[in-house]
């Protein structure tokens, strides 16, 4: 028997799936956004899918995986971008979506199982008068566990910062693959150590997160004659303490033609500011837009759009959905993730736009940074070849713009420091000493391998 056959034979009544077409499908995420990762990961698949129903199942899976040396790759909605959920050394895909309950919510804190879909979570919270502080633009398909293990921020970040900002994730429970697999609870900074580690440090079962009182958000799109005017207006809205907002995005005039749901409302060539605003702020935003030569070209209720099949809430034109809207029409594009400095932000954006008029369609997302307002950019890049892509990255970095590179598979190379992290290696050694969790995604294990 192969080790995977032995693994499967020891699982008892835990549901499994081995139909090759299904296993292949569940071994994919959105890595193909990157032509570089596409080449690297197209041939990587798991051998089977396991579908734990509860923590007990996960503990059993962890024990059997150790016994049979079977790699485990956790999976939520499979919307990660960097091949995060693609098994690079075969083994089992661990489908987490049966752990999908809201456990409790009280005083601005919610406890939730990690496989719960983000839209289901938000709806369940809404019924109780609350909502999630932040969600990825993949809210309709992603899970909360996948967001925490693979994402970084999104809709709501303009108010609450990133997932790693202290206060957003209060605690988590996870199953380890240590000598005696166990379920552990971590809180505060220890819990934050597990964020964005692509499931390489444990199988998250529950999360405790900050939530906020529910708001009836309104989608607003405001067009401007130039990108510069749009960016100045967006930054101004992001800075206005008296206006409650969930989203402040800007897209270049080349992008709205790719947005099937709103393009007919946008004047030709106009740049767009995309907002989610609380009802009390709408009148003020309209007045400020008029004073800034902006034109309100589209308005809708966010939740109504979200709940209507075929409709597109405006947040599905923002964050990493901007790139998706372009890729739906033309696979010749890819993207970057850039962090702009909070001083001279818009001047720097202008400098980069001027450098790459033919390569890059600019897209900004505003959020707070160290007491200031700054922005991330997720520009859509016309892909010519890898050399040009690396040149564009290098030119950003030379000019003080940080790049979180979405064209690499490891946690560290996709971050800002790009070197092995002793702290991460120590976490790995403690919770997964046999290196069975999502192998190939952590550069720091090289230090462990060197130690023997
Ligand atoms: C169109 C598009 C838009 C996006 N927008 C955003 C955005 O706005 N903000 C953002 O941060 N990201 C964004 N992303 C990336 C991705 O959607 C998010 O990170 C999302 O939250 C991932 O959730 P998921 O359930 O699909 O995770 P998956 O893709 O299934 O998994 C992501 C990673 O987490 C691990 N994982 C999953 N569940 C668990 C668990 N329970 N325990 C341990 N590890 C686990 C997986 O192994 C994998 O490494 C976007 C991606 C796309 C394609």
From TrEMBL:
Stored InterPro entries: FAD-bd_PCMH, FAD-bd_PCMH-like_sf, FAD-bd_PCMH_sub2, FAD-linked_Oxase-like_C, Oxid_FAD_bind_N
Q: Which UniProt keywords are present, listed alphabetically?
A: FAD, Flavoprotein
Source organism: Gluconobacter cerinus
Which SUPFAM superfamilies does the annotation name?
FAD-binding/transporter-associated domain-like, FAD-linked oxidases, C-terminal domain
Q: Which residues form the signal peptide?
A: none
Q: Supply the name of the protein.
A: FAD-linked oxidase
Any one Gene Ontology MF annotation carried by this entry is:
FAD binding
Domain (FAD-binding PCMH-type) spans: 42-214
| A Pfam entry, by short name | FAD_binding_4
Biological process terms from the Gene Ontology for this record are: lactate catabolic process
């Amino acid at each position: 028997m192969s080790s995977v056959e032995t693994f499967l034979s020891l699982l008892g009544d835990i549901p499994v799936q081995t139909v090759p077409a299904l296993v292949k499908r569940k071994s994919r995420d959105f890595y193909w956004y990157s032509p570089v990762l596409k080449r690297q990961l197209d041939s990587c698949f798991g051998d089977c899918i396991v579908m734990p129903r509860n923590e007990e199942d996960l503990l059993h899976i962890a024990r059997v995986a150790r016994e049979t040396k079977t790699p485990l790759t956790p999976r939520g909605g499979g919307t990660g971008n960097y091949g995060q959920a693609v098994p690079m050394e075969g083994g089992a895909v661990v489908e987490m979506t049966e752990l999908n309950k809201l456990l409790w919510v009280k005083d601005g804190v919610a406890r939730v199982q990690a496989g719960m879909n983000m839209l289901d979570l938000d709806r369940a919270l809404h019924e109780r008068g609350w909502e999630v502080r932040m969600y990825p633009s993949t809210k309709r398909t992603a899970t909360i566990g996948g967001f925490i293990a693979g994402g970084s921020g999104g809709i709501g970040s303009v108010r609450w910062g990133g997932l790693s900002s202290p206060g957003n994730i209060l605690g988590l429970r996870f199953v380890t693959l240590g000598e005696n697999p166990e379920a552990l609870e971590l809180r505060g900074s220890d819990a934050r150590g597990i964020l964005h580690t692509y499931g390489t440090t444990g199988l998250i079962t529950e999360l405790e997160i900050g939530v906020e009182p529910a708001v009836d958000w309104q989608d607003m799109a405001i067009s401007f004659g130039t990108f510069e005017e749009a960016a100045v207006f967006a930054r101004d809205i992001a800075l206005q303490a008296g206006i409650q907002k969930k989203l402040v995005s800007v897209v270049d005039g080349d992008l709205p033609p790719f947005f099937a749901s709103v393009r007919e409302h946008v004047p030709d060539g106009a740049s767009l500011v995309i907002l989610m605003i609380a009802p009390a702020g709408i009148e003020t935003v309209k007045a400020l837009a008029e004073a800034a030569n902006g034109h309100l070209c589209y308005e809708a209720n966010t939740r109504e759009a979200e709940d209507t099949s075929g409709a597109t809430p405006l947040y599905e034109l923002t964050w990493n959905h901007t790139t998706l809207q372009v890729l739906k029409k033309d696979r010749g594009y890819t993207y970057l993730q850039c962090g702009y400095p909070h001083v001279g932000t818009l001047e720097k954006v202008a400098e980069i736009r001027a450098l790459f008029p033919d390569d890059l369609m600019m897209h900004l997302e505003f959020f707070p940074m160290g007491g200031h307002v700054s922005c991330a950019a997720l520009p859509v890049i016309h892909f010519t070849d890898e050399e040009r892509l690396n040149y564009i990255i290098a030119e950003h970095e030379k000019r003080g713009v940080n790049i979180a590179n979405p064209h690499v598979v490891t946690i560290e190379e996709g971050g800002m420091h790009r070197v092995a992290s002793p702290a991460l290696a120590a976490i790995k050694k403690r919770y997964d000493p046999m290196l069975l969790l999502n192998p190939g995604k952590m550069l720091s294990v090289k230090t462990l391998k060197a130690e023997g």
